[in-house]
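Customer ticket, subject: "Can you confirm the structure for Dephospho-CoA kinase CAB5?"

Message body: Hello, I'm evaluating your service for our small team and ran a test protein. I'd like someone to confirm that this is what the system normally returns, since I don't have a reference to compare against.
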Amino acid sequence: MLVVGLTGGIATGKSTVANLFRAHQVPIIDADVLARQVVLPGTPALAQIVKQFGEDVLLPDGSLNRARLGAIVFTDEAKRRKLNAIVHPAVRRAMFWDVLRYWWGGERICILDVPLLIEGGMWKWVSAVIVVYCSADIQLRRLMERDGSSREDASARLNAQLPITEKVAFADYVIDNSGERHELEKQIDTLVAKLRKAAGWSWRLSWLFPPWGLFSALTTLAWRALSRRRKTTARKK
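Agent reply: Thanks for trying us out. I re-ran your input and got the following:
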């Protein structure tokens, strides 16, 4: 099975692209959805959060008070790292089991929708990376229109993220979402066909003969490690 990473920048239209892939019956594993699921009442991750930050981070019904927790970690880098050390491994485990479920179901492709795919290093664990791109000017305008924020606030949010141009450097496929909806749909149609062709016949072999799947995964990881070194070297020059 071809496991593909999907990412982008704020207001580039990644969610729209994910929905277009869904329209093609391509399974999407959404990291944001999983991040909410792994901290539901009764989960080990929520228990660890309460142990670390106290019961004040819970609402009366026992669910996580996200606003309260956000206020605690927003200005404290050490506490934010502790929170990430709890949530991120839980999300990765959930993603792994979802990938396994889709593989077991005989899917040819699945897409991991991960906002911080590049920043978190997960790009090297997938077969290919898709980056949804638009220019910084369009990002800024869309963000201001979407959130009703000022130019200063929107610019500050954009500047706090890895620039979209740097993410593009890691991409195997770039979706340019600077134009009209029909142009975006045409790009997705073309890319889905390419991904299905890339999956080829080997997905059946890896499903019927798991050792082949393991060999294919290890080959992908080795290639990604080599690509990572090359890209890191190129960025330093």
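A couple of notes from the result: The longest helix spans residues 77-104. The mean pLDDT is 87. Feel free to reply with more questions.
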